[in-house]
Amino acid sequence: MENSPVYTSTSILHLADDCLFFIFQKLDSSTDRESFGLTCRRWLHIQNLSRRSLQFECSLTQLRSLSLSQPSTSISSLHLYRLLNRYPCLNFLSLSGCTELPDSGLSLLILYRSKLQSLHLDCCFSITDHGLSFVATGCPFLTNISLYRCNITDSGLETLSQFCSSLKHVNLSYCSLISDRGIRALSENCQNLQAMNISHCRSIDGVGFQGCSRTLTFLEADSCKFEPEGLPAIFSGGGLTYLNISNLSWCIRGHGFEAIDMRSICNLRILNFRLCRTIGDEAVVKIAEGCPFLEEWNLSLCHDISRVGWEAIGAHCSSLERLHVNRCRNLCDGGLQAVRDGCKRLERLYLGRCPRVSWTAIETFKLLRGNVEIIDEEVVCIAPDGVFF
């Protein structure tokens, strides 16, 4: 008599780890994912290995409205040790707002040879070049780093650029100790740089960007103090599509636009000149003639632009869709007419509190260009969404 086949029961607990990983990735809700990890220790391990990002409740990347006066989360070296040990496959980590995090806390990144690609250290006031050296040697795959208001210097950036040559996005805003020496190190060693923020770094003249990679397409430089040689250097890579130099500090030797190679500015799409009170007709004419793809231009509070400049915008900015002219003292009816008769693709005109523009000129604009929305609102930031994390 033939032996009957033996059937054994199969449980989901007997599945291989690869199968459990696949199941976990298919769970959409956070509740289901947390429940998965509560099943048993093995499933919790699968959940921990699957985690790719981590940020704390105080993180400035999560709570944009957070005041620096609010209590911060105190993160010690022990906390970071436990996190890295539990989540070894993180590629995004935000410690932003952890104001008391010491340099020594970042030394654990070396021990774990972190797979981190994005790291936020915004407002980590205790982090210095020493801590940044741990990041550099412990995070070889780093592509994005945010160091907003950190107390780092050019030496720290030199180390970072040597070990993290794949960097693409770097936020250095309000890093007051940074100069062109640190910017030069990033420009020379990180040939894949795509976006930088150096706003309120008043020790940067701009010359450190000389010879930067063509991959650099996005630059935030609000409230900087560039020398005349700085602006040509910023454009030297020829790849910029977005530039913000709003509130550019006055320099006794001029702004340097006359020295810019027209070929280096031809890719610009968005340009923010808000509060650049010394920008006049010469610079405006050069940009209008040299930037055929310009889509948005903020010239609010640019008082030195006369009718000549506005006529150049009307004649040459055929791709312009959004123009900001709030509180421009020298914008007159004739200048507004030049914009009206030109700029055929214009969709929005931000116009308000221009003392030399009459009600009649505005109503005539509305009548002849009914497709253009005139907005009495002043916009400060015109950066595209999602560039900086």
Describe this structure as you would to a colleague:
The protein is α/β, with parallel strands linked by helices and 389 residues long. 30% of the residues lie in helices and 10% in strands. The chain is built from 13 helices and 13 strands. The protein has helices at residues 17-25, 30-37, 41-50, 77-86, 108-112, 129-138, 154-163, 180-189, 230-234, 281-290, 307-316, 333-341, 359-368, and strands spanning 53-55, 92-94, 118-120, 144-146, 169-171, 195-197, 218-220, 242-244, 270-272, 296-298, 322-324, 348-350, 373-375. It has a 13-stranded parallel beta sheet with strand order 1-2-3-4-5-6-7-8-9-10-11-12-13, with no helix packed on it. α9 (230-234) links the parallel β7 and β8. α11 runs parallel beside α12.
Give a quick summary of the entry:
The protein has 389 residues and is an alpha/beta fold. The protein is built from 13 helices and 13 strands.
Radius of gyration computed on alpha carbons: 26 Å
Task: Give the count of helical stretches.
Answer: 13
Query: Roughly how many Å apart are the termini?
Result: 71 Å
Structural class: alpha/beta
Low-confidence stretches: 62-72
Number of strands: 13
Largest sheet, described in full? 13 strands, parallel
